[in-house]
């Protein structure tokens, strides 16, 4: 049993190592701080666009709410980002529900046309 557990652990470690080797280093600046991160090559553009959006929102909040510190602005951006994401998810669920209802109506109409 211990041999199987060790083998599974070795496979997990190997998978993690492979993933880490595929990551590339990137330096991003959020607010007034620099961060060294590692991202998948295919995600680098998305990460940089996200960082730009965050920094743009920080500037926007700085102009609206003068006199706060950077942590306040970052918290405001985080709240905005999370709220926006939840709203988009809710809209997606609503769209799925509407699509399901339209499918049911289409089936009913098809059945009515076949019966006639």
User: Could you tell me the radius of gyration in angstroms?
Assistant: 24 Å
Spatial order of strands in the largest sheet? 1-2
Please give the number of β-strands: 2
Can you tell me the overall shape? flat
SSE-based structural type: alpha+beta
The domain tally reads 1
Largest β-sheet summary: 2 strands, antiparallel
Straight-line N-to-C gap: 66 Å
How would you characterize the overall build of this protein?
The chain has a two-stranded antiparallel ribbon with strand order 1-2. It is built from 3 helices and 2 strands; from the N terminus they run H-E-E-H-H. Helix 2 (44-64) packs across helix 3. The chain has one domain. It is flat, with a radius of gyration of 24 Å. With 116 residues, the chain is α+β, with helices and mostly antiparallel strands. The model has no long low-confidence stretch (mean pLDDT 83). Helix content is 76%, strand content 14%.
Core attributes:
single chain; 116 residues; alpha+beta; two-stranded antiparallel sheet; 3 helices; flat
Map the helices and strands.
Elements: H1 2-22, E1 23-30, E2 33-40, H2 44-64, H3 70-115
Antiparallel strand pairs: 1-2
Quick description:
This protein has 116 residues and is α+β, with helices and mostly antiparallel strands.
């Amino acid at each position: 049993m211990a041999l199987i557990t060790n083998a599974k652990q070795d496979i997990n470690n190997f998978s993690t190592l492979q993933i880490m080797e595929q990551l590339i280093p990137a330096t991003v600046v959020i607010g007034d701080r620099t961060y060294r991160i590692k991202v998948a090559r295919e995600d680098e553009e998305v990460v940089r666009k996200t960082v730009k959006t965050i920094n743009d929102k920080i500037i926007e909040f700085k102009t609206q709410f003068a006199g706060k510190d950077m942590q306040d602005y970052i918290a405001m951006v985080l709240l905005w980002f999370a709220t926006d994401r939840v709203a988009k998810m809710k809209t997606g669920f609503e769209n799925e529900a509407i699509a399901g209802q339209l499918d049911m109506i289409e089936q009913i109409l098809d059945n009515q046309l076949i019966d006639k």
